[in-house]
Write a structure and sequence with these properties.
The chain is an alpha/beta fold. The chain is about 35% helix and about 20% strand. The protein has helices spanning about 35-40, 85-105, 120-130, 150-155, 160-165, 180-195, 215-225; strands at about 5-10, 15-20, 50, 55-60, 65-70, 115-120, 140, 170-175, 200-205.
């Protein structure tokens, strides 16, 4: 399965932390590259490397089987919680875990790694983050929803639940998102809290299935709390 290598924005100073930032369906890693460029222009997160992975080209059922970058297949948009592509979700979860391990192999402690993304990439990041065997600094999902929700308690081993239950989760969602409905994001936060996670859920008025300047400011502040400079 063809898959481009991630786009990596290296740290400007000593590399002490990493943010892995995953794109949504039909996009590519370069779609979120401007965020790292914006941080660089303003002298933010100089010890942090940013990794923007690229999803493989796969057939997407809801788009008449057209091949496009996707972390897993989507069968229908009317209820994204139904008929989920478990093999594709597991395959991408393992790939995200390999990205985490690659950073750890460079000497970055797992608790200095944040995993997150937008839409499909955010949903997969939440799932992969919860299932990570190593404790992460944080997990974020923008305009995202819970994958394999009914099976999640069974999929969480004692090791990864113990490792990552203390890991803070940030979620941002527009109140008029026509694709990933607000209530799906709210339900995701509710389920995660019931399972023991601390979730900072932010709603943005007038925001559809996109990003918002205030949302990006809130995420930046949250990342600053999770990955403070080590000097």
């Amino acid at each position: 399965m063809a898959q481009l290598a991630p786009i990596v924005v290296p740290a400007l100073k000593k590399h002490t932390a990493t943010v892995i930032w995953a794109h949504g369906l039909g996009d590519q890693g370069s779609g979120w590259l401007p965020m790292a460029e914006n941080f660089r222009r303003r002298g933010k997160f100089e010890e942090v490397a940013f990794v923007f992975p690229n999803a493989p080209q796969i057939p997407i059922t809801v788009n008449f089987g057209m091949r496009m970058p996707g972390w897993y297949d989507i069968v229908a948009f009317d209820d994204l919680a139904q008929q989920q592509d478990q093999p594709g979700i597991f395959r991408s979860r393992d790939y995200f875990h390999s990205l985490i391990k690659a950073e750890m192999d460079k000497g970055i402690p797992s608790n200095r790694i944040v995993l997150g993304g937008f839409s499909q990439g955010g949903s997969l990041s939440i799932f992969a983050g919860l299932c990570s065997p190593s404790p992460l600094a944080g997990i974020f999902g923008l305009s995202s929803y819970l994958l394999l929700g009914p099976s999640l308690p069974q999929l969480l081993t004692p090791q990864n639940k113990s490792a990552n239950t203390p890991t803070p989760v940030f979620m941002g969602h527009g109140d008029v998102d026509p694709l990933v409905r607000l209530e799906w994001g709210q339900e995701t936060a509710k389920v995660l809290r019931e399972l023991g996670w601390t979730v900072d859920f932010r709603m943005y008025r007038g925001l559809q299935h996109s990003a918002d300047p205030k949302e990006m400011d809130d995420l930046e502040n949250w990342l600053g709390e999770r990955l403070p400079s080590q000097g």
